[in-house]
Write a structure and sequence with these properties.
This protein has 406 residues and is an alpha/beta fold. It has helices at 7-16, 159-167, 206-216, 231-244, 262-268, 303-322, 375-380; strands at 23-27, 40-41, 51-52, 56-59, 73-81, 96-99, 111-114, 118-121, 124-127, 137-138, 149-151, 172-176, 181-186, 190-191, 202-203, 222-227, 247-251, 272-276, 280-281, 287-291, 294-299, 331-336, 340-341, 347-356, 362-366, 383-387, 393-394, 399-404. The strands form eight sheets. Strands 7-4-6-5-9-8 form a six-stranded mixed β-sheet, with no helix packed on it. A six-stranded mixed β-sheet has the order 16-13-17-21-20-18, with helices on both faces. A five-stranded mixed beta barrel has the order 22-25-24-26-28. Strand 20 (287-291) and strand 21 (294-299) form a beta hairpin. 35% of the residues are buried.
């Protein structure tokens, strides 16, 4: 029997065989969830002009340097400057103007005293605090100077990125195209959820879990349906998947059972096998191959194993295709609330729940239902415990490596 591929090696092999597809230009309003395929350089200073960061009054520092609650200083109010105004005002010694947040700071003003530290008496403003140069002032170009690199290529376009692009007045952006992903589930026992179930049958959950995982990445799965454990049916549906998609996911039929034909069909269709079987639990019967630039994954049929292999291997590959430079999961360390045992010589991803004690320490406990068909334990989990392949026991109180999951 061939040696199992270790998980870290499997991930490296997947990423090494993954290529970005191509770039497209999209409207800013449609760019959320993509990765930038260009550097964004500031086309102007940001802020574009020096403005007030608060509602208040512009002053010269010396005019209010001795102001406090016991020694208020009064200045005549000469006018008001609102956001959107372009004022030709030049502030002189011994006077003040009301200014609103976002309004341009006129020539001669040195700072803004916030409204709450003043009182008004007719056309006079009473100041009850002193100020320092630049208080409550946003200076032109303090965030970006014109020509600065504002956003690097391969950055994920989040709402904040969309907002910054809009601030520069950018209407279209160049992004990496998202891949087309086809999903095929296999098994004589599977029934679609809108059909009446018979003895010996089960409802298909794998298409729904995998397509939902893709939906979280804003990718609509190409549904290839359910294939029976029949070579002709499998050959037809897998051929359609290879023709229509950049990434093909086949769930089930990948092991060595009498009716597990998927690997034979991959060979017949000239898919180049990179590895088969991983030293991880759940997820041992996992296949990965390539056909040209297309990625082909054979996932386990058990629902939890299928979903975990997706998150461990498929999702990082899709993210790389979309332009993400590195796969960096959020790793923490937490103290075990109970003993953990295993017999397999595989890295085990234990579905678990992360908790916090009253003193702020992170603790973690395995969820109920760890078998690879038990989705209930996955529903309760908010993290995965890394149970090293060489170990069989983790004692209560041990600090363990934990990865956050959504």
């Amino acid at each position: 029997m061939a040696k199992l591929t270790e998980y870290t090696e499997a991930l490296q092999l997947v990423l090494a065989n993954t290529r970005k597809i191509k770039t497209i230009a999209v409207d800013l309003s449609d760019s959320l969830g993509y990765f930038l395929a260009q550097n964004i350089f500031a086309n102007s200073d940001l802020p574009r002009f020096t403005s007030s960061a608060a509602d208040g009054y512009i002053v010269k520092m010396d005019d209010v340097k001795d102001a406090n609650e016991d020694n208020p200083i009064t200045l005549p109010l000469k006018g008001e400057i609102k956001a959107g105004d372009f004022s030709k005002v030049k502030l002189k010694r011994g006077e003040t103007y009301r200014i609103l947040t976002g309004a341009p700071i006129p020539q001669g003003a040195e700072s803004v005293v916030m409204k709450e530290f003043t009182n008004q008496n007719g056309d006079k403003i009473i100041f009850k605090t002193s100020t320092k140069h630049g208080d409550n002032v946003r200076y032109k170009g303090e965030e970006f100077k014109k020509g600065d690199k504002a956003i690097a290529t391969n950055t994920f376009i989040s709402p904040a990125v969309v907002g910054l692009l809009a601030t520069f007045g950018i209407r279209k952006v160049k992004v990496f195209q998202k891949p087309k992903v086809a999903v095929l589930v296999t098994g004589n026992e599977l029934v679609q959820i809108d059909k009446k179930i018979k003895p010996g049958q089960i409802y298909d959950s794998n298409f729904y879990t995998l397509s939902s995982a893709l939906k979280e990445m804003d990718i609509d799965a190409i549904n290839l349906g359910i294939a029976k454990d029949d070579k002709n049916d499998l050959l037809k549906k897998i051929s359609v998947g290879l023709e229509s998609a950049d990434i093909l996911l086949v769930s089930g039929g990948i092991s060595v059972g009498e009716y597990d034909y998927v690997q034979d069909i991959f060979d017949e269709l000239r898919v180049k096998k990179i590895f088969w079987r991983i030293a991880m639990k759940p997820g041992k019967p996992t296949y990965f191959g390539v056909k040209g630039k297309k990625l082909v994954f054979g996932l386990p049929g058990n629902p939890v194993a299928s979903l975990l292999v997706f998150s461990r291997l498929v999702e990082p590959a899709i993210q790389k295709v979309m332009g993400k430079l590195e796969h960096k999961p959020i790793i923490l360390f937490a103290r075990l609330e109970h003993d953990l045992k295993k017999r397999s010589k595989r890295l085990e991803f234990v579905r678990a729940k992360l908790n916090t004690t009253e003193n702020g320490e992170l603790t973690v406990s395995a969820t109920k239902g760890q078998d690879s068909h038990m989705l209930g334990g996955m529903v309760e989990a908010n993290c995965l415990i890394y149970f090293p392949m060489e170990m069989e026991l983790l004692n209560k109180g041990t600090k363990v490596k934990v990865e956050l999951i959504h």
